[in-house]
């Protein structure tokens, strides 16, 4: 396998390809072309071929891609063929909602526990996850080799908590807190701010309300489980 820097948009599209291919596999579809896969994602077929060619030779010219084979290869590329233990830091409304999200387990992420500093929450159970202290979290990280964490703490605590996580050995942080996290140098950080997408929709609606026609995007939304 080739090792090189892969653009983030390519990795995000691989995730979309994976979900589409899973749906096709469930429906018993054996073959899909780059045009059909591109249409499903809302991109040009040339982008699909370029993305996949970065990782090897897939498919047969004039025939298409074997759905199951391509799905399995992308799953391996994304590490979806094994489970990844994760902790959620923050057992408030947001953290509790994230713990209840079934998509994490479906995509191979196993939420081991929630972490909080509130004595009244520590020891309680949210869904089927136990809320633990930082001391217990440190033990879990070491015992289970946890390398990923989800942040759902108040904005004023984000930076300090991120540093605590990297000190425990966490290498990747998904930040749902309402602030852009500048992650510690040793950690990969992804900031998730849903209000950005609401602003995108609001911007388009605002143009419509003012009699302007927004330019059509080169991509479109796609319904996925």
Written description of the protein model:
The chain is an alpha/beta fold and 225 residues long. It folds into 2 domains: 8-77, Arc Repressor Mutant, subunit A, CATH 1.10.10.10; 84-195, NAD(P)-binding Rossmann-like Domain (Rossmann fold, 3-Layer(aba) Sandwich), CATH 3.40.50.720. It contains 9 helices and 9 strands. It has helices spanning 8-26, 34-41, 45-53, 67-77, 93-100, 103-106, 134-144, 158-168, 194-209; strands at residues 31-32, 65-66, 84-89, 109-115, 125-126, 129-132, 148-151, 172-175, 188-191. Strands 5-6-4-3-7-8-9 form a 7-stranded mixed β-sheet. The protein has a two-stranded antiparallel sheet with strand order 1-2. Helix 1 packs across helix 4 (67-77) and helix 2 (34-41) crosses helix 3. Residues 217-225 have low confidence and may be disordered.
Helix/strand layout:
Layout: H1 8-26, E1 31-32, H2 34-41, H3 45-53, E2 65-66, H4 67-77, E3 84-89, H5 93-100, H6 103-106, E4 109-115, E5 125-126, E6 129-132, H7 134-144, E7 148-151, H8 158-168, E8 172-175, E9 188-191, H9 194-209
Parallel strand pairs: 3-4, 3-7, 4-6, 7-8, 8-9
Antiparallel strand pairs: 1-2, 5-6
Helix pairs in contact: 1-4, 2-3
What key attributes describe this structure?
Arc Repressor Mutant, subunit A, two-stranded antiparallel ribbon, alpha/beta, 225 residues, 2 domains, seven-stranded mixed sheet, disordered C terminus, single chain, 43% helix, Rossmann fold, globular
């Amino acid at each position: 396998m080739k090792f090189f820097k892969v653009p983030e948009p390519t990795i995000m599209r691989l995730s979309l390809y994976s979900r589409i291919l899973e749906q096709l596999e469930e429906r018993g579809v054996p073959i899909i072309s780059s045009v059909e896969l591109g249409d499903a994602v809302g991109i040009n077929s040339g982008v699909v071929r370029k993305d996949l060619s970065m990782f090897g030779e897939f498919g047969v010219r004039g025939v298409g891609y074997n759905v199951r084979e391509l799905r399995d290869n992308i799953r391996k590329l994304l590490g979806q063929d094994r489970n990844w233990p994760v902790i959620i830091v923050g057992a408030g409304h947001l953290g509790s909602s994230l713990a209840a999200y079934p998509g994490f387990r479906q995509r191979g992420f196993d939420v081991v526990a929630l972490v909080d500093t509130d004595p009244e929450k520590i020891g309680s159970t949210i869904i089927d996850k136990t809320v633990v202290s930082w001391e217990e979290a440190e033990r879990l990280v070491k015992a289970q080799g946890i390398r990923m964490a989800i942040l759902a703490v108040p904005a004023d605590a984000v930076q300090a908590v991120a540093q605590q996580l990297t000190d425990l050995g966490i290498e990747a942080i998904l930040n749902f807190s309402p602030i852009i996290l500048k992650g510690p140098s040793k950690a990969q950080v992804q900031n998730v701010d849903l209000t950005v997408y609401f602003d995108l929709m609001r911007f388009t609606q605002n143009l419509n309300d003012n009699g302007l026609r927004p330019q059509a995007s080169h991509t479109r939304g796609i319904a996925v489980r």
